[in-house]
Each structure stands twice: as structure tokens, then as C-alpha cells.
Amino acid sequence: MLAKRIIPCLDIKDGQTVKGTNFVNLRQAGDPVELGKAYSEQGADELVYLDITASHEGRKTFTELVKRIAAEINIPFTVGGGIHELADVDRLLNAGADKISINSAALKNPALIDDIARHFGSQVCVVAIDARQTPAGWKCYLNGGRLETDRYLYEWAQEANHRGAGEILFTSMDHDGVKTGYANEALAHLAQTLSIPVIASGGAGAKEHFRDAFLLGKADAALAASVFHFGEIPIPSLKEYLQEEGINVRL
């Protein structure tokens, strides 16, 4: 069985790592290169760097920062935010990123998934989905959770899978930053209906939440931010705990 992955997520704004609750109320969390280096040394399996205001402000992603990260970090890392075309993907991969994450751009232009998979391979393309539960079901949101769309989580994830996405990174906006656990029911539904890995995001506050994301949510990887950034859950002790709970992780 493939080892489950632990992935710290670093949201970047103005060159610094920040963290909020339910996508707002951001606070500083440190230098993205130094934090990434520390996580790599502590045993993180991968990292995700998201330029959280890139789509909203219409900017290109932080190529220079990606070069600095690549020079210092020896585990795979994914970069997202402000990626709209193949040239953006090419630039970031050349700067040293292993994968790219697309969210708003994919919803606006689903064929972008096909193009990235065809040009660079599915393994490079992570489709991130920010969704919130509504009376009508899980609705997808654009531009860092600012705009509701008419797309629904499950059908959009299926389409992304068919178009050639390599992974789905699902963030429950309702759970983001509130530390009460992941959206395990939705995760399990995705895991059972997709043929690609699912990364859980939004809600980690205790070691048990990671365990539940893997056992109940059937996730392939669990992503978290504040519990790592503010030292609440050290990665080595998290992995030891998960192994004790019978979950296959790389120690």
C-alpha cells in the first residue's frame, strides 16, 4: 500500500507565509523558504506553496521565490496561484517546481487541464477545489473562495479526473482554519469515485484529525497549515502517532 503523505501548505502573500480562518483574517507565519526547509528536515513528504492573492489581483506567480525554494528544499513541492496558461506552467517548472496547482483557471477554462496533462504529464497537474456545503450540495468557489460558481464538487472533480488531472486537492471552506477535523464524508465520496489521489485540506487541529482523514475520509494525503506553522503539531510526532494507529507513513 502506498504511504500516506503529510503536506504542509504555505499560503504566500507579499512574499511572506500567512494563515487565516475560513479564508480571511490572515496573520503572518514566517519566511516561506526557511519554513519549507524546516518542514523538509522534519519529514514532510511534500510541500504546497499557494500565492493566495494571485488570481484575485491578476498577477503572475512568484517565479523568483520558487527558484529560492528549489535551491533549498529536497522534497517535491507544488506551486499554485495565478496560473492561467501553459507558459505559466513552463515558467514555474523551469524555476524548480515539481507540480502546479490550478483552481480558478481550471473552472473558467477546463481544457487547461487537458493541455497541461498533454504537454507536461498528468503527474504535474493538481486540480485544487475550494468548496462549501450549501442546501443544494457542495458548491465550488473561485478566486480564493470569493466567488460562488454553478459547479458542484463531485461532478467537477470527476470532470477534472477525466481531463487528465493527476490529483485533486479538496479544501472544505467550512472547515478551513477552524481545527475541528476534515470533511471526511465528502473526502470518502471523492476517494471512492475518482481514479486519482485525493488530498484532504481544511480542518486539521489534532493528530486524530489526520488519522480520520486517512481512515474515514480515505484520503491519500493530508494537507495542513497553521498546526505546523505555529508549532502545534510537530511532523515527527504526528507520523509516529499515525504509524501507531496502523497508517502507513514514511518515517
Gist of the model:
The protein has helices at residues 32-42, 54-57, 63-72, 86-95, 104-108, 111-120, 153-163, 184-193, 207-215, 226-229, 235-244; strands at 5-13, 16-21, 24-30, 47-51, 77-80, 99-102, 125-134, 137-142, 147-152, 167-172, 198-201, 221-224. By secondary structure, the protein is of the alpha/beta class. The protein has an 8-stranded parallel barrel, surrounded by 6 helices.
Mean pLDDT, to the nearest integer, reads 91
Tally of alpha and pi helices: 11
Question: Sheet with the most strands?
Answer: 8 strands, parallel, barrel
> In sequence order, what are the helices and strands, one letter per element?
EEEHEHHEHEHHEEEHEHEHEHH
Secondary-structure-based class equals alpha/beta
Tell me the span between the first and last alpha carbons.
15 Å
What is the oligomeric state here?
A: single chain
What percentage of amino acids are in beta strands? Answer: 25-35%
Q: Helicity level, as a percent range? A: 25-40%
* Low-confidence spans: none
Structure summary, number of beta strands: 12
Widest sheet, order of strands: 1-4-5-6-7-10-11-12
Q: Indicate the overall shape.
A: globular
Gyration radius, in Å:
16 Å
